[in-house]
Amino acid sequence: xxxxxxxxxxxxxxLQAGYSRQEDGDESAMRANCTCTLVRxxxxxxxxxxxxxxxxxxHLRALLGEHGLGVGDIQVVICSHGHSDHVGGNYLFQKAxxxxxxxxxxxxxxxxxxxxxxxxxxxxxxxxxxxxxxxxSPGHTLGCVSVIVxxxxxxxxxxxxxxxxxxxxxxxxxxxxxxxxxxxxTLQRKERSKMAQVCDFIVPGHGPMFQVTxxxxxxxxxxxxxx
Length: 227
Fold this sequence. Notes:
By secondary structure, the protein is α+β, with helices and mostly antiparallel strands. Helices cover 19% and strands 27% of the residues. The chain has 5 helices and 15 strands. The strands form 3 sheets. Strands 1-4-5-6-7-8-9 form a 7-stranded mixed beta sheet, with helices on one face. A 6-stranded mixed beta sheet has the order 10-11-12-13-14-15, with helices on one face. A two-stranded antiparallel ribbon has the order 2-3. The radius of gyration is 17 Å and the shape is globular.
């Protein structure tokens, strides 16, 4: 298959797994960068989700180049929320038809309200097959969004969730996502459970992609019911 030829499945490619850790010798500081993900939709639309820090521009160009793409080949830029480690590379993608930072969509100086109904399950469709959608997922911030990819090359549905999930370990240890900050722990628990019920794989904000198991779904559902 040629590099730019549409596939029969949507391709979810983690360009770089994120991380977050305490800075050695300084309890008041930490190091963090987000998971950066490329979605190659089968209709030819290219979507990048979370663009790392402003110091990662050349690194991000190189990561895209490994997949035969340049910054001008990205049509849609999605940032799960507006924290600096998730939006820093947005400036690279000036040919994109839309930038979405949280629930705020724009192109140049035009701002568009794609979530105007106020319904929590409202979706923004990104591709012509309606298989790649953006959905609100408040918690870490109240404006957070996630990208849900159906018909993926992994054989299941993938949720690219930003900091709704920090990493897989935060399912057993809630302190991981709580310590990362949450504007509504109640909403975040509910959204985490909802995401796990509909997805087979999760791409978290600061760790590698993981497969969702039934025991994870049960644990998250129990956590959400406790609020």
